[in-house]
Design a protein that fits this description.
The complex is a heterodimer of chains A (323) and B (324). Chain A has 323 residues and is an alpha/beta fold. Chain A is built from ten helices and twelve strands. Chain A has a single domain, classed as P-loop containing nucleotide triphosphate hydrolases (Rossmann fold). In chain A, helix 3 runs parallel beside helix 6 and helix 6 packs parallel to helix 7. Chain A starts with a strand and ends in a 5-residue tail after the last strand. The relative contact order of chain A is 0.14. Chain B has a domain of 218 residues: 3-Layer(aba) Sandwich (Rossmann fold). The two termini of chain B are 27 Å apart. The chains are: A alpha/beta (323), B alpha/beta (324).
């Protein structure tokens, strides 16, 4: 039984730096990233800023061209697109929700013109009346009702939460199979975050879509996903079933991340692992394991060779030579 | 005034004059902060928590003003002090760490110039002594004192925030106000900065007002907690107690809005609707339109902050008295 809808095999993305002094220098934003996404599954991609998680989503969405590696949709290699039709076909299946609800809606367009674009581009409506019904349906689906009240408004007339709902409605307009959600709640007020998260979980069930849920918040990832992948400095360090990765984190970085998350029940904790340093430069990433410069257990070998992803059973993979 | 109180706010009202009218961002706030206490103020964007901080520092923008009420710092009402008198307090006795350390440091001046200037502006010392003070303080926040010659762009985000903390503590203030100091930082860096603040507080004994929207963080680090909603404090008490048994429906909603790393995963509720505009706040309780247990009376009368049990206050007509 093949249940995999999306698969990345050793995908890398390097950005060339601009400027005369930087000729030949690249940012290793994403290196050797491999994972798969099952149909109807929600996989959380967790990492700090600069870890490459947004780059990963953008490469999958086809916004950046990958440097190397292969991406498969339904077992077929995709990207780069050869024709506009191929690109459209792919983008109808793979849609992205952006982090910033203020920047991702054109401020000079009404909600109607923002929302009708996917229907027009993908020629989904047969008539004006049908389009109207589709627009209303998609707004009601995200809890913006009565829909007619919202269609003529401009983004600045909506709150952050409402704008993110419009974004989600636009994403779901083309009945996609995969949603790449890039920190969709991180810029919203705390009291409305959970409402948006619940709505995405409901839509996932109702529409049978797969989610790649990107976040820096380990607890939010736990709430949203069944599997979790943790990225650091452009590489996946640990991937596996959510509960297992969180309860029995194996990679020292994941342990550090877990120890650093706020835990209101406990008082100021001295983290089990001292929190030192920050994410290294990705122009000259550390040799060997990218975490070795901050790792309390690092040995000589850690700075010499890049550890491979190792399966420790039950679909739980770790990139650490000491495990 | 309590004998050991360093700061007391009495019925403070402050706000902004805008084209659309006056926005009262801080509405009738009363609070007491004791010496050495770590007070957390939690609230969502637009609830007035930053305005409260800037009012205490008397650093409000030109279109903003303190309408009424008093700010009593160590026995003196500083609400109407002129700039010259205020400078005796600002930075010397009370200092602030601003939200975005990325922008709070001057990009064309080295760390040395900025730290030394801060000392010289308030103290009669030689430049060499000021530099010595600055280097000692950098060491305390875990920055190699040699880095004093660096410019802000040569430092990482976490280091810049440490420089801001060093700058705030240079003159050993009695009160440190921190306005979302870790919001823009990654969790690991955030954790190390929190540990550092705790450590420094033990060394110097200053009081802290820590402002954030991240309630789970506050519960962990603060002694007491004030929850703000739409310009008003709706609940106050010892952090652990407020966390374990919140009284106000808004606090209860907030507590049910954070997923956790441990324990069973259950569907969480969050809070329906959104915070009201402070241009025309709803009559009665400001939370009533979003409150799931509101009754008719809630929309008519403004609930006062009342004692529900020793040390705990709540502004809700439905929770007064039932908390023994």
């Amino acid at each position: 039984m093949n249940n995999v809808i999306l698969e990345l095999k050793h995908v890398s993305k390097h950005f060339a730096l601009s400027g005369l002094r930087n000729i030949g220098k690249v940012v290793h934003a994403m290196d050797d990233v491999s994972f798969f996404l099952n149909k109807g599954e929600s996989l959380a991609l967790v990492g700090e800023s600069g870890s490459g998680k947004t780059t990963t989503a953008s490469v999958i969405a086809g916004m950046y061209e990958k440097t190397s590696g292969e991406i498969y949709l339904d077992g077929q290699p995709v990207l780069p697109f050869k024709t506009r039709e191929a690109s459209l076909r792919y983008k109808k299946k793979v849609q992205m929700i952006f982090q910033d609800p203020f920047a991702s809606l054109n401020p000079t367009h009404t909600i109607r013109s923002i929302l009708e674009r996917p229907f027009l581009i993908h020629k989904l409506a047969g008539s004006t009346r049908e389009l109207e019904a589709m627009l209303c349906d998609s707004l009601e689906m995200v809890g913006l009702s009565p829909a007619k009240e919202y269609l003529h408004r401009f983004p600045h007339e909506l709150s952050g939460g409402q704008r993110q709902r419009v974004n989600i409605a636009r994403t779901f307009a083309v009945s996609p199979e995969i949603i790449l959600a890039d920190e969709p709640t991180s810029m919203l007020d705390v009291s409305i975050r959970i409402g948006i998260m619940n709505m995405m979980l409901d839509l996932k069930e109702k529409k049978h879509v797969s989610f790649l849920y990107i976040t820096h918040d380990l607890a939010g990832a736990r709430y949203m996903s069944t599997r979790i992948a943790v990225m650091y400095a452009g590489m996946i360090m640990e991937i596996g079933p959510t509960e297992e990765v969180i309860a029995n984190a194996v990679h020292p970085y994941v342990q550090l991340l877990k120890a650093s998350a706020p835990a209101p029940q406990e008082g100021v904790r001295k983290a089990a692992i001292p929190a030192k340093g920050e994410i290294p430069s990705l122009v000259h990433p550390p040799s060997g394991c990218r975490f070795h410069t901050r790792c309390p257990y690092a040995k000589k070998i850690c700075s010499e060779e890049v550890p491979a992803m190792r399966d420790i059973g039950n679909g739980h993979l770790v990139r650490c030579v000491l495990v | 005034m309590h004998a050991d109180a360093i700061l007391e706010l009495r019925n403070l009202k402050a706000g902004y004059a805008t084209n659309a009218g006056f926005v009262r961002a801080v509405d009738d706030v009363s609070l007491t902060l004791h010496r050495g206490e770590f007070l957390g103020i939690a609230g969502e964007s637009g609830c007035g928590k930053s305005t409260l901080a800037y009012s205490i520092m008397r650093l409000l923008r030109d279109n903003a003003r303190i309408e009424s009420g008093s700010i009593i710092f160590d026995g003196t009402d500083i609400t109407s002090l002129d700039e010259k008198a205020m400078n005796e307090y600002r930075w010397t006795r009370m200092a602030m760490v601003f939200q975005s350390a990325m922008n709070a440091l001057n990009p064309v001046l080295s760390v040395e110039e900025q730290l030394v200037d801060a000392v010289l502006a308030h103290k009669q010392v030689t430049r060499a002594d000021a530099k010595k003070t600055a280097m000692e303080m950098l060491e305390l926040v875990d920055i190699n004192p040699e880095r004093i010659a660096s410019y802000p762009h040569q430092l990482s985000g976490g280091m810049r925030q440490r420089v801001m903390i060093a700058m705030a503590l240079l003159l050993k203030p009695d009160l440190l106000i921190m306005d979302e100091p870790t919001t823009a930082l990654d969790v690991v860096v955030q954790r190390s900065i929190l540990q550092k603040i705790e450590e420094l507080r033990r060394i110097f004994g200053f009081s802290v007002i820590f402002i954030t929207h991240d309630l789970s963080l506050l519960v962990e680090i603060s002694d007491s907690l004030a929850i703000m909603y739409a310009g008003k404090i709706c609940e106050y008490g010892p952090s652990r107690e407020v966390y374990a048994s919140p009284d106000h429906p808004y606090t209860k909603g907030l507590m049910n809005a954070f997923p956790t790393l441990t324990g069973p995963i259950s569907r969480m509720g969050g809070i329906e609707g959104q915070a009201p505009s402070l241009l025309s706040p709803p009559p009665g309780c400001r939370f009533a339109p979003r409150c799931s247990v509101a009754i008719d009376a809630c929309t008519k009368e403004v609930p006062l902050l009342q004692v529900t049990s020793p040390g705990r206050l709540c502004a809700c007509r439905l929770c007064g008295g039932n908390h023994e």
